[in-house]
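Just scan my protein:

——
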Amino acid sequence: MIARQTVLITAAVLVGLGLGASVLRGSVPVSQAQTTAQPASQPITPALNEASARLQNEANTISIVKKYEPGLVYISTEQTVQADPFGSMFGGGGSQVQQGVGSGFFVNKAGDILTNFHVVQGADKIQIRVFGSSQSYAATVIGRAPQYDLALIRPTSLPAKFIQPIPLGNSDTLAVGQKAVAMGAPFGLDFSVTEGIVSATNRRIPIGFSVNGGSEGITQNALQTDAAINPGNSGGPLLNSAGEVIGINTQIISPASSGGEGQNAGVGFAIPINAAKNLLPRLQKAGGKAVYAPRLGISAGLLALQVTQNGQQAIPLGLGSLTQSAKAELKLPAQGVVVASVSKDSPAARAGIVGGTSTRQFQGGQISLGGDVITKINGQDVDSLEDLQAGLIDKKVGDGVTLTLVRGGKTRTAKVILDAAAFQQGN
């Protein structure tokens, strides 16, 4: 799904969940406890009444579903695509309508619906349906965030009585083993519910799409769950035992041998809700346009130069790609991002980050020397631009990040404040 940071999983692939998404996103046309040792003759009395516990858990799940399923939204889309641009020359061609489905949920009384970007990407027509009603209502995109695989849509004529927001939780406080309830429309089966646990809280995987419309995701921390989620669950909520949204379902790992559309294998991923909460104000003010992840305002100084049909292509690399001898000769750290240049009036410039003063060519590439090398962001190792983006992706205007820098063999730290300009495309 992403070439820049590949996760090798035996006979498995990451696939998206939206039935109307791109191929990489799973496109499918719609048509332990301690005890005191006891003598062998004295059976150990269970500390937990399993039947009672099971009933308590069932009651909790039923309560969650009854109270919050009305906040779930079924999304259907249509997109007109060119079937064969040359077909008309031979009496065929023309266009066809591609349909798809996904999920979403209300986040406020205004009727705003949070979903995945890939659910509504490229859609010419979006319709939603709410729990308990067969009526469909038109909806429009009011904000999109491709890099986060998130979008905010709003129905145009939905009666207020149908708008039932689901409370948003705090994904930063989650613990592995907590209950997880997934809601959505797997394989188009609308308003379905499954249950599992939070399997991991900081699983780094590629999510989202590049700003130029490609399918390259930005590495982010995701929630992993074994609650059954499948294609069509995209954009649906993942809830805790309090009925709060803790994540937005976005991807699954599916065995490659299963064939056809990706299916659940007990490993699914959700975007932490705190990332979405940080984005919501920006999405609501986007006016249908895209919002972007923050940028520091630097360019990479280690480049691999490749010749393509369209000319020479420069691919940014981390120092980890250089040999030990090369780094020793150039007096560079073991890993990090070399800074070639710093944009004027950018967050990096105001933090005193310095670009290179000279450039050295080598076979197949070039490197800028004399400037800073970013080796960590908020204490996390950095060896690519993607690592930097991963450390920035959940930030909002006014937040700060701490960079560890190496220049001339000396290490220092710099606090970078992300102002509004850091969130503009091309900064």
Observations:
- The CA atoms of residues 303 and 316 lie 5 Å apart.
